[in-house]
Amino acid sequence: MESPDDEWELTPEVAHPNAKRLLKDEFYWDICDEDSPFGNDTGADTLEFYREWIEESDDDEDFLHQLFDDWEVDWERAEAIPDAELSACLEEEHFDILTYDDVLIAVAFAQLVLEGNTSRDIAALAIRSLKRQALPEVIEFRGWSDPGERKERCARMLEVMQSAS
Fold it and tell me: 44 with 38: CB under 8 angstroms?
């Protein structure tokens, strides 16, 4: 997938009115804030690729499968890992797990920003990913500088996701 060439920028002014209503906190709009849905390379790239994708297609599942294939993410494995086994799997499978979660969180919020709502299927997957990303073992593995803030942001994103689908 190639990134669009235009100068589009993530701001409340270009977002769907429903996104502006739900995403009141500034961190949602800051692509440099790692605790935001688009604040890491994976999240920012997912937003850009999804924005390009919806101009040509409306099949979210195809988007995810193509992106995961392009990025060589074993999404089926990442999706299948129970939370109880997560800690044991992070060391060996962190790329698949973390990329999978970051993509799902980003595409869910991209749908909200660009289209005004999040599909039920994507929201359900993003909710699971947000819960998983708030687990102490994931926060520790990722080395978040402020674990409390990360957990709080995940909780706020979770609230939005639960009301956006």
Answer: yes
Instruction: Kindly report, residue by residue over 105-152, the tens digit of the pLDDT.
Output: 999 999 999 999 999 999 999 999 999 999 999 999 999 989 999 999
CA 59/CA 39 separation, integer angstroms: 25
Q: How far apart are CA 1 and CA 129, in angstroms?
A: 23
DSSP 12: G
Q: What is the pTM of this model?
A: 0.92
From the CB of residue 120, how many other CB atoms can be counted at a distance below 10 Å? 9
Q: Which residues of 89-114 are buried (b: 16+ CB within 10 A; e: fewer)?
A: ebeebeebbbbbbbbbbbbbbbbbbb
CA–CA gap between residue 85 and residue 108 (Å, rounded): 25
Domain boundaries, the chain: 17-164
Q: What is the pLDDT of residues 57-76, one digit of tens each?
A: 766 668 999 999 999 999 99
Centre a 10 Å sphere on the Cβ of residue 57 and count the other Cβ atoms it contains: 11
